[in-house]
Write a structure and sequence with these properties.
- It comes from Streptomyces cylindrosporus.
- This is Lipocalin-like domain-containing protein.
- Pfam families: Lipocalin_5.
- It is a single chain.
- With 153 residues, the protein is mostly beta strands.
- It has a single domain, classed as Calycin beta-barrel core domain (Lipocalin, Beta Barrel).
- It has two helices and nine strands.
- The chain has an eight-stranded antiparallel beta barrel with strand order 1-3-4-5-6-7-8-9.
- Strand 6 and strand 7 form a beta hairpin.
- The chain is globular, with a radius of gyration of 17 Å.
- The N and C termini lie far apart (35 Å).
């Protein structure tokens, strides 16, 4: 049964979000920024129940060739740790204040087929997602992007 609260949260989530910060706290309490303090990214939730998350290290160096298939082993090795992305579907559990990302595919193959549970809250117009991961706790903060008319007939 869908509740008024689930409808409210779902409505608030829908749309595109811009990354504000992604931080990780290890078991010793040390804070790090997996893609740097100035990482960029987008998170999208659609009305059809799909989710896509793309997070990237800012100012990644360009490859020598504009053909990604011609990247050198060194270029590929340097680029891989500068990106984090996946797509799939999402569900809500408003009793637990969680949004669950059901991963269909990802840059990191170990995420495929998993359920990524994110504890959500809305603070000062921002979406805060907290999660416990194998490398510690993460907090990702997003700002809602304004609607655009581009691509709309």
């Amino acid at each position: 049964m869908i509740t008024d609260e689930a409808d409210r949260v779902r409505s608030a989530l829908l749309g595109a979000w811009r990354l504000v910060t992604w931080q990780s706290v290890d078991t010793a309490g040390s804070v790090s920024y997996p893609l740097g303090e100035d990482a960029v990214g987008q998170l999208m939730y659609t009305a059809t129940g799909h989710v896509s998350a793309q997070l990237v290290r800012a100012r990644m160096p360009r490859f020598a060739s504009d053909d990604w298939r011609r990247a050198t082993a060194e270029e590929r090795a340097a680029a891989w740790p500068g990106y984090f992305g996946y797509f799939g579907t999402f569900t809500l559990d408003t009793d637990a204040d969680t949004v669950i990302h059901h991963i269909e595919s990802s840059w990191f193959p170990n995420l495929v087929g998993t359920r990524q549970v994110r504890h959500y809250r809305f603070e000062d117009g921002r979406l805060v997602l907290d999660a416990d991961t194998s490398w510690g706790q993460v907090r990702i903060i997003w700002e809602k992007l304004p609607r655009t008319s581009r691509g709309v007939p």
